[in-house]
Amino acid sequence: MTHTPEALDASALDAADPLGAYRSRFLGADDPAIPAYLDGNSLGRPVATLPEAFSSFITEQWGGRLIRGWDESWLELPTRLGDRLGRAVLGAAPGQTVVADSTTVSLYKLLRTALHARPDRHEIVIDRGNFPTDRFVVEGVAAETGARIRWIETEQGSGATLADAAAVIGDATAVVVLSQVAYRSGYLADVPGITALAHEHGALVLWDLCHSVASVPIELDTWGVDLATGCTYKYLNGGPGSPAFLYVSSALLADAGARQPIWGWMGDRDPFAMADGYVPAEGIRRFVSGTPPVVGMIAMQEMLGLIEEVGIKAIRTKSLALTDFAIALVDERLAPLGVVLSTPREHEMRGSHVTIDHPAFAGMMGELWARGVIPDFRAPTGIRLGLSPLSTSFAEVEVTVEEIRGLLAASVA
Amino acid sequence: MTHTPEALDASALDAADPLGAYRSRFLGADDPAIPAYLDGNSLGRPVATLPEAFSSFITEQWGGRLIRGWDESWLELPTRLGDRLGRAVLGAAPGQTVVADSTTVSLYKLLRTALHARPDRHEIVIDRGNFPTDRFVVEGVAAETGARIRWIETEQGSGATLADAAAVIGDATAVVVLSQVAYRSGYLADVPGITALAHEHGALVLWDLCHSVASVPIELDTWGVDLATGCTYKYLNGGPGSPAFLYVSSALLADAGARQPIWGWMGDRDPFAMADGYVPAEGIRRFVSGTPPVVGMIAMQEMLGLIEEVGIKAIRTKSLALTDFAIALVDERLAPLGVVLSTPREHEMRGSHVTIDHPAFAGMMGELWARGVIPDFRAPTGIRLGLSPLSTSFAEVEVTVEEIRGLLAASVA
């Protein structure tokens, strides 16, 4: 189902928005040089408390506690923050999530883990439209292990349906690698349906949550997901390049065959024994390899505080209101100029960004950005309107659509 | 050769120290609660400009440029910062170094690269005394590839001599994995000698520079090193868990067989084409996998500024003066109480930390730390006095030795 707002009145929608006040909790939200930032789905804005959080971290924790900080709190940060993400945005009970490494490295570890846990199977299922790093990791792992890739032939960035998946998943499938929200179209996949289908065939699932986490409801435990990972710099506002989270279900953790390939001191049972021979830690800790990236984990904690205040349900409600509004504006003001909506209209098939396509968009991005109107572009013809529920206003959506309309009209004239 | 200071007078040595003024460039150096911090070899102090650097990064770069920051500077940061490290502290010409991932993940990538580049060889040489994460990565890679580990049987943390290496390296050796400075003893290995020996046998070398970089001279290009990696949170003061650097020689980069296993979008020839099929970037960029950890790279840039001002030669001179002083104090005041020096006395065999052993040390650490006298402990009986040339004073060394003497005398009495 889809909803069209009664009137396309951004001011009224902002005034009535129960989460409207949260916009002031982000830095730069009222910067006159940036009238509209619609790329929070790629890099979330900094939370306003960050300068103080970093200053106090540097002075009091790092500078004041020095090496003692490791024993006092930092060593446990990957699992403590993982548990907190599990509770707030992943639907994951404690002990299954850590924060560490990049999404790419996490994908590599989890994919190798899946193949290790299904030694009698040799096929990896992934959709052709998945984000490049997911596909590249799969290609690399296939090249090194001899696994065969079974491609779901979707359009670039469009996402795979249950039927698409059913046509490819079979009894030789070791693991299915898909994204909950497609990076280009914003398509929201049927995670529980595809997960159940994979399990019927004895396969594992590895869900990439980069473009969904903290903007749509996720219930990893309830859905029976085996493996998942995702970015923290999009809707979790962790800052450029902040580390990824990585989830392994308790059931799979109990399987001694589920072992990741990058054996490091922080995944050892007793890192400071400095003993002979790697012995993996019990539980999720064995998925950590190197020293935890503590500085990179500061910003997402501030954002998590806001998310915990609001709750994912209210965040999703706002997200849908924003995407409904964007779609209605596109229908009214851009469709007549030949702009095509590439995002599903149905709520249950839509994440938190709206993608529109037009051949003239590639030539317009420089001018848009120069005006401080900042969506992002995906080749060859797509503009993504990324709507970050706690920091994006309805006014920003309207400003962006209006600027695009003006530039398009001028280019056609 | 070794040098004993003429008089064990910390005040005079500090007063005459040409780098003494640099101490004030670090936060907390005059914190009365911490009279001596001798663990900068494990976690360097924050540079004094950091709160301002982070605040300006958050407000102006992240908050002000938002997603545009990637195109404007962040995408190139791994290679730009790598080149800068190459020039300032690694003796590496541009185009061979990147900053990314943890040291453990870097070791994994480089070790797999080495095996890939030597497909007809199946032995990995490593010393038993190497840092745990190096040994664990080697064990993991051996388990997955079937490579055989040839151990150099050194004491834990003692480091391997040229003779030790010569006894094990042979014509089946694919790669030799050693540390320039041994994490426990501070032993400084003969990098050019062992590298030449490995090359005579057709093997590659992978040097771990964690405990040496920015405290001792390094000439990777001149020495013909093939592969290297190291931490940035020790003498490069990058903050807890800051990302590692990774070096691959131009010669090895020219070898198409030298390929790392974690294929990600940032190592692709054209990340934003989002095209089918991974095509590794030319040169060192193909060793990057995921999105660069930009926030984690801020602090080390401030420290690099100081290092570039001073130069590695003056840093090494101060380091040797500090370790000379520490050894002389240990000889005079702790040896009579049964304390054993575990660090080589010869300058050319010594890094920037001094390790001493005594059975009573394990029981003394809590009290030392409670007094704000902070060296670190390595089981079973070692205290490491880590002397970070730009931030450690001679007075801190004396305070630490005196506190240890007092506690030891009391425990014996």
Automatic annotation (TrEMBL), chains A, B:
Primary role: Catalyzes the cleavage of L-kynurenine (L-Kyn) and L-3-hydroxykynurenine (L-3OHKyn) into anthranilic acid (AA) and 3-hydroxyanthranilic acid (3-OHAA), respectively.
Gene Ontology MF annotations: kynureninase activity; pyridoxal phosphate binding
Needed co-factor(s): pyridoxal 5'-phosphate
The protein, known as: Kynureninase
NCBIfam families xrefs: kynureninase
Keyword DNA-binding: no
Biological processes, Gene Ontology terms: anthranilate metabolic process; L-tryptophan catabolic process to kynurenine; NAD+ biosynthetic process
One Pfam family in the UniProt entry: KYNU_C
Metabolic or biological pathway: Amino-acid degradation; L-kynurenine degradation; L-alanine and anthranilate from L-kynurenine: step 1/1; Cofactor biosynthesis; NAD(+) biosynthesis; quinolinate from L-kynurenine: step 2/3
Reactions catalysed, as given in the entry: L-kynurenine + H2O = anthranilate + L-alanine + H(+); 3-hydroxy-L-kynurenine + H2O = 3-hydroxyanthranilate + L-alanine + H(+)
Gene3D superfamilies for this protein: Aspartate Aminotransferase, domain 1, Type I PLP-dependent aspartate aminotransferase-like (Major domain)
Cellular component, GO, one term: cytoplasm
EC category name: hydrolase
The protein's Enzyme Commission number: 3.7.1.3
